[in-house]
């Protein structure tokens, strides 16, 4: 059973974003990471925070794919993933490739 996490409407849309996110920074990344993400989803988390400098972007994506496969969430539209661009990618000509790497 999920936990009630407060949400805030996004502008003039009907969609709301959870005000509490699940942080995914972890050093070193280990095998239990995916299970923690899946457990967070079972508890009601739908907002996940990561960054290009964390080793968790790809494993987070894999865990969310698994959550969809298991039916823990009905669609990707239920999820919010926030990330941060790394400093080395914040220069002209590097922003778009840096964001594409994150979205991959």
UniProtKB/TrEMBL annotation:
Q: Where are the transmembrane segments?
A: none
Show where the NADP-dependent oxidoreductase domain sits: 31-90
Q: Which domain of life is it from?
A: Eukaryota
Under Pfam families, the record lists: Aldo_ket_red
Database matches in InterPro entries: AKR, Aldo/ket_reductase_CS, NAD(P)_OxRdtase_dom_sf, NADP_OxRdtase_dom
- Sorted alphabetically, which PROSITE patterns does this protein's record hold? ALDOKETO_REDUCTASE_1
Q: Which GO terms describe its molecular function?
A: oxidoreductase activity
This chain belongs to the protein called NADP-dependent oxidoreductase domain-containing protein
Organism (species)? Citrus clementina (Clementine)
């Amino acid at each position: 059973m999920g936990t009630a996490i407060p949400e805030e409407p996004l502008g003039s849309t009907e969609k709301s974003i959870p005000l509490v996110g699940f942080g995914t920074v972890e050093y070193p990344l280990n095998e239990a990471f995916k299970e923690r993400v899946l457990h967070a989803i079972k508890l009601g988390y739908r907002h996940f925070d990561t960054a290009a400098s964390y080793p968790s972007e790809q494993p987070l994506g894999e865990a969310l794919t698994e959550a969809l496969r298991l039916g823990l969430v009905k669609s990707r539209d239920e999820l919010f993933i926030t990330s941060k661009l790394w400093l080395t990618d914040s220069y002209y000509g590097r922003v778009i490739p840096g964001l594409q790497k994150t979205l991959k």
